Structure prediction request, 943 residues.
Amino acid sequence: MTARTSSSAPDPSTPSPARRLLAGLAKTIRTPMGATATVFLGVVLLAAIVAPMLWSGTAAKVDATALDQGPSGEHWLGTDNLGRDLLLRVLVAARLSVLLSLSATAIGISLGLLLGAAPWLLGPRLGRLAAAFVNIAVAFPMLLMTLFFAVIFGVGVQGSVCAIGISMAPWFARLTQTLIAGVQKRDFVAAARIARVSRFGVLRRHILPNIAEPLIVNVALAAAAALLAFAGLSFLGLGVQAPEYDWGLLLNEGLSGIYVNPAGALGPGIAIVVAGLGFNLFGEALAKVLGSRHKVRTFRPRGASRTVSGSGGHPRQHATDGSAGDAIAPAGEVPVLEVDRLRVSLDTPNGTVSPVREISFSMKRGEALGVVGESGSGKSLTALAVAQLLESPLHVEAATLRLLGKDLMAADPRSRATRRFLATSLGLVFQNPTTSFNPTMRIGPQLAEVARLHQDMSRRQAGARAVDRLRAVRIPGAERRAKQYPHEFSGGMRQRAMVGMAMMGNPSLIIADEPTTALDVTIQRQVLNLLEQIRVENQVAVLLISHDISVIGQFCSRVLVMYAGRVVEELPSADLRTSARHPYTRALLSAVPDMTADRSQPLATVPGRPVDPADRPAGCAFAPRCTFATAQCHTAEPPLQEVGSGGTVACWNPQEGAVTAVQGQVQQAGRGQA
Amino acid sequence: MEARRAALGLNDPIWSQYVHYLKNLLAGDFGESITRPGLSVSQIIGQRLPATIELAGLAFVIAMLVSIPLGVLMAALTRGGRRQRTELAFTSSSIVFAAIPEFILAVGLVCLFGQGVGLLGIFPVAGRSGPLSLVLPVISLAVAPTVVLARVVRVEVLTVMEADYIRTARSKRLRAWRLYLRHALPNAVTATLTLSGLLLGGLIAGTVLVESVMAWPGLGSSMVSSILTKDYPLVQGIVLVYGVVVLVINLVVDVVLAVLDPRSAIQES
Ligand code: SF4
Prediction:
């Protein structure tokens, strides 16, 4: 059996555990699995209660005229070697089978609780001993333990009940220990300890109620295990002894007469399975219901919310044609990347939500374009959408999405040609280098994968190429390092290796999604310098995604500012300080003291909270946080329009003039976060 | 009788019998069977153990060989909430199969192949006589561990598929099978192995029952008969063997886990 510990203990602030449990039970019965379990258990319990009252006499009646008969109208399962009706015997045996397994479960739980709570009650030293004992005992399969104790306690009903109970105890003890360990560090337990409530009192009043839920789930599973174990023991002849009988013993008798009457073995067998399934399913269903109350599993794109209201009815604002990149890309040259009206959507029960919409831009060879915005602005989704890495339920639409002139929307993403094209022309660098490498693969082979699979290189050639790339990203001892696992690299080295991986296929575009966020300042600079060098030397376009406008300002020639899933401003980064017009861009800028300032200081933040893409306000999404908002801002969404200085902005009231840092605010924010 | 009791040392005080027994144990001597005089416990165990190992080992190998691909396949098919009906069918059938204890399955198979029309005599239902006789006991033993493990593999693989490094791997545009087998599976192996150790232990316990159903001449049927005939030296010996086997399995799982986890590998410097 496998313990279910997934459902975490409830908070003490919620309604009483008993009531929660009752509600859980009621809900369980209504799930398909719970309903099935209830029917099974109902049948078994009904038989256990009623059958012995009605038929215990008949079931024991010897009939010399009907020995060893097969199934007939009179005896549905046939008769045994004394002419007794087998169906009635199976029904009557329900009581003993259920009662014995429940008694064994009760013993197991009481012993297990005691043993499991021992570390808590006895203090650390004796507790460790108890825990160690439990750990060893738990390693032994329950059935083996049961047989062992059955030998010690002797053949028979009492011995078997004790044997099964005891062999179940370590398993329950382990569960209790785990659960107690989970709650004992919580505040209310600490508070009760400080209030000098005795350890036993804390256990009874504060800990047990809080671990009751998962324990009860496991009681059902344990009852199933006990029932099966008992059937096994009786079947082997070690449990219930004639003239008493339970299902296991009936199965034993049925097996010896199997060539005369197979139904005699199948009947009790089915009874055991039905009862076992009943308990098991009930436990599973209960675990599901109780477990699911704590974590509601719904899909959440970064920053999206659980509740989703309709998003239809927003005015669709199309970027003016040619506004974004076409003007910048010189005529005649195919842009590296062309994006027009890109939209990322998610179908929810309450309608379609688009966390990213109306994104249009283009990039030319060797260009560095920055996308800046708070988390939840849709910048990472945009990057993943361009890279064709989004998976269902998210889907991407675009009027144009071309990489090196190849139409990605029309290409079959599963065809070998498309995969080869994407793998070799597009490199990706992700945010967290620690989690972005496969921990079970050496660095070299991880890099070499693209070369081997998409560039037709042999293992040796690909390996050499990987070492070469590692050298290119200035990893000392590249040959040796290629044979190491990611955990043997430092954080900065891992991110450089990640850049090397992106460079495996001579890409024309590298998309770097927050490549420096997880790194400290000096390493940040190293990685940015490396990207810069690659961009210049190899004429690779770099799409840099960051929440840090100063990083973007230093690295990129152009900036897209994203808010609530759309571009609100685009401008050359040299003009950021002087001619940013959108109030959001200006707020981002004023949160940075100076472009050259020490970025080890925590970034100040824009006051207010980012908007939820599922619940975008009508009009300008920034309006609730904007100090310049007018009545128009709350009703109509501003279109992205060209402005004089070679940029575009989506604002009804664009601001003029240079942006200065709000020193006080920055310091305050810095202190607040320190 | 009295002479025999004396010879077996049964007249000595309990503790001295026990010390004597332990001494002999350390020397590799489990004593002599009561019901089969002249045969030492070690001899009987030596005769019976291979049959049990054969059964448990084969069942375990088959369970692993079926459950891991099945689990990965189910993960691939049902990822991201797709094919909900397949998932439901898989989950519910795995719960049902996991709830059928091996000995009842064995009884069912004996009924089917011992009595069933058209199936009669395809596979022997009792005894150990050649490879065909392995089929039914191995199926009885392997079904429950297979479905339990397949479920766990599926869940583990699905968890791993959410990891950042899987996104990295996807950015290399690998084929799905390579993504699942080369990148996801090795990362799901820890939980899988830990559980498979437990399952192997349970499987060995299960042999006791299945051997009794199918008259398999292994350690388990021998233990049951010796319990019923109160042949205590034999019972003790066999219980001890089972205990050691389970401990060894746990040890092996720990060692294998340590070897497989690169984070514990010795660093080259
Ligand atoms: S449109 Fe209005 S609310 Fe939106 S940024 Fe401009 S001024 Fe502020």
